[in-house]
Amino acid sequence: EIVLTQSPGTLSLSPGERATLSCRASQSVSSSYVAWYQQKPGQAPRLLIYGASSRATGIPDRFSGSGSGTDFTLTISRLEPEDFAVYYCQQYGSSPPVTFGQGTKLEIK
Amino acid sequence: EVQLVESGGGLVQPGGSLRLSCTASGFTFSSYWMHWVRQAPGKGLVWVSRINSDGSSTSYADSVKGRFTISRDNAKNTLYLQMNSLRAEDTAVYYCAREGRVFYAFDIWGQGTVVTVSS
């Protein structure tokens, strides 16, 4: 089973700052199989990034994804108030088919 | 509008059973693989099960294998999760999610249904 480890656990930043969230896999993952989600309290997750770097429909261009192999990154270029939430990375593999990271909470400083 | 709506959650005693439903609208349900994902209170997302578009292939997380059964009725645009031998650790919000057709990610999620296993 591929384990995804996200860091940091909590990130405290101010609106307008740049956020960099990390997701490290326990073994190499194809970039095609890496996604990022945003979840706000009481809401379902929302797809932000698929294929490691492609933005989902309607996602602002301040969100970007990058990485390959075992290291993947979600970057938010300039934080807006609505961006403070929990972010999860996900990989789609073979057994089990899907695993998620434990999440990074992005909070207002 | 593309939408998934879950139902069937509730309070059940340990060892009991529950069937969750997820009704799809606004897209061709029969063309998509579907998943169940759960989230225990205050915890992260955990994948539970997957079913392919025609229902002929399924997969499960080890934690639910042998207890949960995923199925679908494409004529009714509905996904199901039959949960038996429920345990306290199955307490969670259960989400159904659509897998994108050209990418390996979940592009549409339901609002979730709450399952509480307690005596």
The poorly predicted ranges of chain B are: none
- Could you give the distance between the termini of chain A? 36 Å
Helix and strand content put the structural class of chain B at mainly beta
The count of helical stretches of chain A stands at 0
Q: Would you list the SSEs of chain B in sequence order as H and E? A: EEEEEEEEEEE
Number of E strands of chain A:
10
β-sheet strand percentage of chain A? over 45%
The span between the termini of chain B is 39 Å
User: Mean pLDDT across all residues of chain B, rounded?
Assistant: 97
H and E string of chain A? EEEEEEEEEE
Which percent range fits the helix content of chain A? under 10%
> Helicity range of the residues of chain B?
under 10%
Low-confidence stretches of chain A: none
Shape of chain A from CA axes?
globular
Word description of this protein:
The complex is a heterodimer of chains A (109) and B (119). Chain A is built from no helices and ten strands. By secondary structure, chain A is mainly β. In chain B, strands 2, 4, 5, 6, 9, 10 and 11 form a seven-stranded mixed sheet that branches. Chain B has a four-stranded antiparallel sheet with strand order 1-3-8-7, with no helix packed on it. The termini of chain B are far apart. The relative contact order of chain B is 0.31.
